[in-house]
Amino acid sequence: MFRLSAVWRSLILDSRRQEAFYPIGAILIACLYAIYFGQPSSVVAAQAEETEGSQCGELFQDSDKIDANKGLVWVEGDSFAMGSDDHYRDEGPVRNVSVDGFWIDAHEVTNAQFTRFIEETGYITVAERPVDPEDWPDAPPELLKPGSAVFRMPERLLSTDILQWWLYMPGANWQHPAGPDSSIEGRENHPVVHVAYEDALAYAEWAGRDLPTEAQWEYAARAGTDTEYPWGGELAPGGQHKANTWQGMFPVQNSETDGYLSSAPVGCFPPNDFGLYDMIGNVWEWTTDYYARTRDPNVTDNPTGPPEDQSFDSNNPGVFMRVIKGGSFLCAPNYCMRYRPAARHAQDTGIGSDHIGFRTVLNEPALK
Ligand SMILES: [Ca+2]
Ligand SMILES: [Ca+2]
């Protein structure tokens, strides 16, 4: 019932929150960038083809079999300092948390892997299912079609309203990531996107896996480090990009100095010390934790987040949200600095977008 309305409400309210974080000066600069560097939306529509020739993802051809524990990395359990007190309030306070050992995908689930899941099960993702008009009496008819949320670089930035760069696009789904005229041909090793939470969970269950808890995910992303980023204290030390994020003034100018305007094939950036790729950036990743601004400080052993009825996001009261982690190719220094292990975001479970994917875990130490 709240699927679309929650998304749009979230987007609208999030723009107000970001406006509070970024003063009017930053907005004016962004407008100037829009005037001088604003690109037509056709540039973004061409994203699907931009990285066809990249070879990075082919590193994983042999590990893309979903049988047994192939493609997984064993992560030894330990305690770690979870969260951060230096950025968004919902990341803190820093507390000591322990997790048992677990297996986790070395990389985000790819289109090739998801294709196999679909071919074997006939599963239909949320973005492909008919929309019942009775569920959406106030929605405009053009939105009452299967689809998903797609980022579109605005030609001009007229305000901070994020609906200038997010749109609900009928026909967008995992097979058509930029809209109905796009495809995943040549993008087999890119992370699958437009997966709602239940889609990711269905894949994980088919593979005999789980989705990670937020604690598992953050522990794996940190890979034994307690620095801002898994590689140290700077986002791009010496100008070397360690993750696929956004360079320039979001959302109107992306210099692509990391080589990618949208998603990259998995494994194009260096792995962390656990051998895991793209934990930071590329696409956001689902976790099983329900979202709440604060977390129970007394639950420190394998925390799984609050129960559903305690999930609360002040931007979406009454809507149960899950935590996504890692940031994406849309996260920029002037907007959404969530390309850090401690960062988190509340996400409506009922819809995907073109910058949210996932990876799986296997909680079977006996297979070690
Ligand atoms: Ca990028
Ligand atoms: Ca990622």
Structural write-up:
The N terminus is likely disordered. The longest helix is centred in the first third of the chain and has 19 residues. It is built from seven helices and eleven strands. It has a single domain, classed as paralog of FGE (formylglycine-generating enzyme) (Alpha-Beta Complex), CATH 3.90.1580.10. The protein is α+β, with helices and mostly antiparallel strands and 368 residues long. 20% of the residues lie in helices and 13% in strands. The strands form four sheets. The protein has a four-stranded mixed beta sheet with strand order 9-8-7-10. The chain has a three-stranded antiparallel beta sheet with strand order 1-4-11, with no helix packed on it. A two-stranded antiparallel sheet has the order 2-3. It is globular. The structure holds calcium ion (CA) (2 copies). The site of one calcium ion has 8 residues, from loops.
